[in-house]
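Input sequence (162 aa), recorded before submission:
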Amino acid sequence: MDVKRVVTLTEELLPQLLALGADAMQEDAWSATQIAQQLARPRSINIGVFVEAQLVGFVFATYLFDEAELLQIGTTGSMRGSGLGKALLLALAERLQAEEVTRLMLEVRSSNTAALALYQRAGFAQDGRRKGYYAAPNESGEREDAVLMSSPVSAVLTSLGN
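Predicted structure, token format:
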């Protein structure tokens, strides 16, 4: 991977975030309004990774007191499998630790095996399921379960920090 740069995301990057979100999140991509609201939200952490001048990955999270929720994480298709998701999750955990957040929660589509594997490697455990939470990803019409997971921030740092 070329030299990468980790930045705090700002509204000036909205066009790049929209394009990346459409590629990375597909049916779960956020609208411009949702992204702008996230970028303006107090107690949020919004991180992007650039390779050269291209935004190739992002993570959005919000926190309150000692708990945080990972809202979205994504990478461009060409960067999948490169370790960028791990780098984003580690950068998020480092910033959460600086804010004295001790627990990170998330939900993920039950069919997203790559994300589930990353989260398990990062020390997350399954807390439950939300039956039929996500809209059908295809014409089948069957809704998809959300897998609820959480981890101590310290476990994420230990598991991914190498």
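Checked by second reader. The helical segments are 14-25, 32-40, 84-98, 113-121, 153-160.
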